[in-house]
Fold these 3 entries.
Entry 1:
Amino acid sequence: MSQLRATRQLVVVRIDRLARSLSHLLEVIERLEAKGAFFRSLQDPIDTASPQGKFTLQVLGAAAEFERALIRERTKAGLASARAKGRVGGNPGLRARDPAALRKVRLARHDGYMERLNESAHDWVPHVRRLRPDMAWEDVLRIINGPLPPDRHWTQSRLLRAVKAYVRDGFLPDEVLGRAGRRETDDRLPAIVAAIKGSDPDITLQAICDRLEAMRERTPRGRTSWQPSSVRMLLERAERLGLLVRQMD
């Protein structure tokens, strides 16, 4: 049995239910320590809150590394023995470059890629559908990444690949890949603010300020800190230019 001690709760679980192997157990303990929790085994001298327990953990780590090295050596020996007997691993159709086998692999990869895209489609598809091709990709990307945590940010090349895949499968119209028209410099900020407002009509002026600061967008006077009055002014200009009505439609 083992205990997971956190600041607010105590969890008791069998150690064979906590991890699949020694290396997996060490990985679980590392994740717990990163979150400020401690691990203590009720039947083994492991307690990451004490120096002795950490020493035991280091010994287990060395044993796990030794175990991985043995597995690697046995795997290499097994492959060498199979090759010596004329057996080659892998898909025979792929080795022979069979068109049907290659097509099957391509379809499987495409299906997996599309499945991953579908999980994040709500982050980017509405913006692309609404803003392209009226807005340049650089600005669309900044609007998409604005509310997302850093670990979920898109790069322009990754976004373009996703959009092309959706266009190819008919989930987005061809027009989104069209070339963006030239926009006057004075119209850029109103267009960005209108795009943010259009994606969430109930968003407050302060929330738009926060979004613009997260995008590292500077104010018309070149400042990094935004005020609701500046956003209101840009929204009014966007409405006069017809940008706000078009985005909200």
Note: The chain has a mean pLDDT of 79.
Entry 2:
Amino acid sequence: MLEKKDPDSTFQPSKESRVTVLSTKKLSVNQKELLLNRGIGLVERDFISILPLSFDIPEIPPNIIFTSKNAVKAILEHPSKKQLQQKNIFCVGEKTAEFLSKNGFRVYFSANYGSELASEIIKDLREKEFLFFCGKRRLNELPKRLKDAGVKLTEIEVYDTQPVSKKIDRIFDGVLFFSPSAVKSYCSENELAESVAFCIGKTTASEAKKHTSNIIVASTPSIENVIVQVVKYFK
């Protein structure tokens, strides 16, 4: 049972907690419970916001790439949705794959990281054509590797990520990060020196390394596994 301590998204377990962490993304009820049931206090705030962009799709090849749920959400109301659902979908992340399947898309291949997806495409599908739905601030590794290997790739930006920076007058035992953008947003106003940075993946950890060496990276890139690392660290 969640006990909400105040209206500013601060939660405490039923017993007084000696450890409190900050999540830079609002968590689901089940995700909160994973922390609170282990006696870990939680403060949560969204340090980034997602803004959909207007876009056109000139031509749809047989193969589509998504690297985030935000990109999938951006095309769910698009007139081309039904056509896209008939294509081979390549994606990054277990949650992205689940979300695609839930919304009627055919997931052909899913990888944990963009680098793994690029390797798979280059190995077996170098001659195919791909359409990549991405964010305006997307990482360059995946498209660069594909283009350098001669893969025909068209990119369409469908959303933008904006920082929602805020000064937090408190030092947390840990801070949970789920994207490089969230690290930049948080660290533009706050210090990380005395907190453990729990990061969802390697690229997020690379950004956190600019501010601290006290970093723990999830063994698989999911929100739940970030929470598992927090629980293991503070048990």
Note: Residues 31 and 224 are 7 Å apart (CA to CA).
Entry 3:
Amino acid sequence: MECKIVFSDIDGTVLNSNHHVLPSTTKAVKKLLQKDIPFVLVSARMPEAIKTITDEMNVKIPIISYGGALVLDEEKNTLYDKKITAIDTMNMIEKIKSLWADKVVINYYTDNNWYVEDTENKAVKREENITKVKSKQAPFNQLIKDNILPNKLLCMTEPPICEKMEKVLKDMFPELKIMRSSPILLEIMDKSVSKADGIKIMLNHFNLDRKQSIAFGDNYNDVDMLDFVGLGVAMNNAPEGVKKIANDVTDDNDHDGIYNFLTKMNLVK
């Protein structure tokens, strides 16, 4: 295939186990950009939490944020912006609080802002340490009243509760996309949002066909992306189910997986 654009997940893919970009990955990205092949980060993260990655690599590149709910070009101009409706946001937050009360931490992401109702919560502090982004404190009902609506809600809780929440809320809110992105994290977005749809918007922006694209991913929330592009590549640290749907498998995120595959494809040297 003739590759004209490369997409990649962040956590477990571009980042190693210590949450840093391998030097080989940075080298590969810069080689692609020198050849006018865009490298696009695709993540459930907010833009500011993706910027810490692009700053580490010292590159200016497009991003697909919130799992496809917010798509920005390399100058950070908005190509697509999908929010959860006010009524769905209000009903979801009320339902979570009524069923799980103090067992769940709700995070409210809108554009490039991350709101919580308690910035001192331990789970919030842990997320701040991982993403290198600071949360802001605000009552959710006031945000909704002011029509500051979320691209994404993120729930942090213990694994058994997270699994239960996913099943219960999916039945209650069929109009929303609800899925675990880790054993302790539950993502909530508009039903129409997906990494694959975010990629469609980016391909249209660059006037490219999906057959000209490669994507790297490591988890089940990458499956639609890996399945959609011309060549879907699973990291070796991915679950077996993800590897099976991918077109190919590369080395893991601690052993130059992205660089090695792009070298094999003669895209970088």
Note: The longest strand covers residues 176-182.
